[in-house]
Amino acid sequence: MTRLMHVAAGPYAPPVPARELTVVSADGARIHVEVHGPEDAPAVVLAHGWCCSTAFWAAQVRALAADHRVIAYDQRGHGRSPAHPVCGTEPLADDLEAVLAATLAPGERAVIGGHSMGGMTVMAAASRPGVRGHAAAVLLCSTGSSRLVESATVLPFGQGRLRTWLTRRVLGSRAPLGPVTPLARRILKYGTMGPGSAPDMVEACARIVHACPSRVRHAWSGVLDALDLDHGVRELRMPVEIVVGTADRLTPPVHARSLAAALPNCVGLTELPGLGHMTPVEAPDLVTGRIRALAAAHISTDRTEPAVHAEEIA
After folding, report:
1. What are the distances in angstroms from CA 242 to CA 34, 141, 236, 258, 263?
2. How far apart are CA 133 and CA 232, in angstroms?
3. 240-245 and 30-36 beta bridge pairing
4. For residue 306, what pLDDT is reported?
5. 154-211 pLDDT, tens digit each
6. pLDDT for residue 301
7. At a CB cut-off of 8 Å and minimum separation 6, what does 156 contact?
8. What are 20's strand-pairing partners?
9. DSSP string covering 182-228, please?
10. Rounded to an integer, what distance in angstroms lies between the CA atom of residue 179 and that of residue 261?
11. 8, 51 in Cβ contact below 8 A?
12. In the chain, which stretches have pLDDT less than 70?
């Protein structure tokens, strides 16, 4: 891909990982994984959202890797994980379970952070033994479990069949996003970020989103349209914290409030005034702080050596 997949400088430029590996999922999908920080530190696993990549977590990785082992992976078809013909919430759960098995020792606990589709991944995998055995706590950022299209406010008029129909076509468009231009930045900021987002935040998100292939964007839009993971929310029995922006047009706060009400062990809901859907980029210090606090509260300092079940990348 010739298009720049992320910004190359500044706080949102991805740091160089300590190591990289390829994890093979249950159906053969190859998942690109990056590991940052000390090998003997408390573990954090980060799952990004639709049309994004590991670069989305750059600010969190940069801050946490000083004293945590941060594991970030590209969802199938995104970033450096090759496209795969199978799309769905169960494959996402397979991928997360495979990443945990490959990077964590048996019984090792980690904080799992999921943004948007990454949060949905955690919900889809909530009943999996590999997730229950490794998840000490979960942070859900800007996500929902069902009825995404009908509740999205990307289009500026009231809820109803017309808005749902048009939203479905906008989000599911096959059209390529093209180069990152001033107009493209304004459109992306309107749809996914708060009005006060700084230019470097908008640029970082635009580079990441525009790098996602249109066929991948379209394929996963159908999965999100049909999403129904309400049952998975009830299976998230570990401590779960939620962060959402009040100006989120893709997963408005109604989703976060529903999650908080349904979770067996919700330990906090933070609504950030004026922020949009890209909370880890728009509020990097707050999201990093929530992850750090969950790790301190729920991960024991006793751990064994990490597992190796994947192909190391030279």
Report:
1. 24, 6, 13, 11, 10
2. 16
3. unpaired
4. 41
5. 988 878 899 999 999 989 888 888 899 999 999 999 999 999 999 999 999 999 999 9
6. 65
7. none
8. 34
9. HHHHHHHHHHHS-TT--HHHHHHHHHHHHTS-HHHHHHHHHHHHT-B
10. 41
11. no
12. 1-3, 301-314
Q: What's the pLDDT score for residue 175? A: 87
Q: Which residues contact 29 (CB under 8 A, 6 or more apart)?
A: 76, 81, 82, 84, 86, 91, 94, 95
The residue written with tokens 């600010």 in the block is 59
pLDDT of residue 193: 98
Secondary structure of residue 258 in the 3-state scheme: helix
Indicate the SS3 state at residue 71.
strand
Token reading at 293: 């606090």
The architecture in CATH of the region 19-298 reads 3-Layer(aba) Sandwich (3.40)
N- to C-terminal Cα distance for the chain?
Answer: 21
Q: How is residue 113 written in tokens?
A: 């952070």
Would you state the pLDDT for residue 157? 80
CA dist., res. 68 & res. 83, Å (int)? 30
Residue at 66: amino acid letter: A
Question: In this predicted structure, what is the pLDDT of residue 1?
Answer: 36
Place of tokens 């900021």: 189
Given a contact cutoff of 8 angstroms between Cβ atoms, the answer to whether 62 and 11 are in contact is yes
Q: How far is CA 298 from CA 40, 45, 136, 269, in A?
A: 16, 14, 6, 17
